[in-house]
Fold this protein.
Amino acid sequence: MSKPVETDSFLGNFGRTFITAFQTVGAMTLLQLRIFRSLLAIKNFDYDESVTQLFKIGVRSLPVVIATAAFVGALMVVASGNFVRATGATTLIGWAAGTAVFSEVGPILIGLMFSGRVGANNTAELGTMVVTNQIDALRVLGINPIGYLIVPRFMAMIVMLFFLTAIGDLFALTGGAITCRAVLGIDMRIYWQGILDSNLLSEFIMGLVKAIFFGGAIAIVSCHWGLQVTGGARGVGRAVNDSVVTSAIAIFMVNFFITVLWT
Amino acid sequence: MIEYVNVTKQFGPLTVLDGINLTIKDGEITYVIGSSGTGKSVLVKHAVGLLRPDAGRILIDNIDTTDFNERQWNQIRMRYALVFQHPTLFDSMSLVDNVALPIRKHQKVSKPAAKKSAMEYLERVGMTTKADLMPSDVGPGERKRVSIARALTLSPDCAILDEPTTGLDVVASKNIDEMISELSKSLGKTVIVVSHDLRSIFGVADRIVFLYKGKIRLDGSPSAFRASDDPVVRQFVSGEASGPMET
């Protein structure tokens, strides 16, 4: 007779982690389906809550995104600076910075900042509502929590991360231009002309498409962990942690698949 | 009318409700009482679908709701309004916005119209002067009153109040008792109250259901409750620390 696997063995822990991961993905998929179903019931759309979320998620994230983007652009210029100086190919500096900012580093870093600020906040807020029975209070008032709370957040995160990434791209390039002049001593006009000549429209659009999917992924992940909270304040803290980690993994996975499919 | 037919509910190894058979009639004020942890809140949460029985059936107005989905329960919840033990106001909204939310969502009116209507409900519970404050700015008694006002916006046939006077001072408790009486006597609503408060129970109740160890120990009028010679009931009424009652 085969010996049962001990639950605290390596294999037991591995199996448990595997099952938990699948349960989490399954629960997130179900949440996504419930969101799409609520989206179809357009008569239940809550305009006030949506406007509140658009403001809270978008407008308040702007300073963080601008600061992140400006330094990302600056970093890209500094990183490619050595190569440009060594070869004397100064016209390539705009292409190098623009490509990296538009297609990869810009959307990813803005997405990570967004998940840290908005996603974590969203998980904490929903989690607190769960442990203080505010979600059940909505249910007993005959209000569907998915339609009222989750759908506006889902839509706001997608819309706002899209616009924040577009604005972030602009500030990243500006940060790069300033660094180009201040650190590398290359004329800003060469930098800007390099970007324009490189025809980076495809990279720019790919970055925005990524932002849409990142926004959706962060919304699903942060709402899922917020609604799953049990165990009071400690549970909320744990959920926020899980939310940030899972969002980061989701961002890198989504980024990989879009990049592969796009190119 | 709410009927519990042989309802059993377990949480892990603990049997909280053990084959409960109970019918709540329309228009009555029914008090569900018992010591802490006997399943009073669990019992009333079954009536609005927040919990589902492990065994048995829940019938509301002769319709079996046991296998209802969330959408079907939402229709029931419009007529059977539950106010939680701890006031569950939405902490990101002012008091008036809390009360206006169900009006706005269900009556499909504009925000100003919903607020105007909400003020009328707040007036009923004497909270108009604090309408624009946030829930954290008022005391627990006031939050409870606003919670009740919010539940009444649904114009329910039945109000289910979970420990509405617990933690309140005597005057605030008296106000809640009067509101419960008014709901039943003037407006003809069915009221179910979960309570420990003997003063309220004997002053307001039409009927008392005493839960003990997951079963109904006594179901009768306040006078029958007072006259009971059951030692467990006697100890609950007298409030003595020693006796046959297991807590």
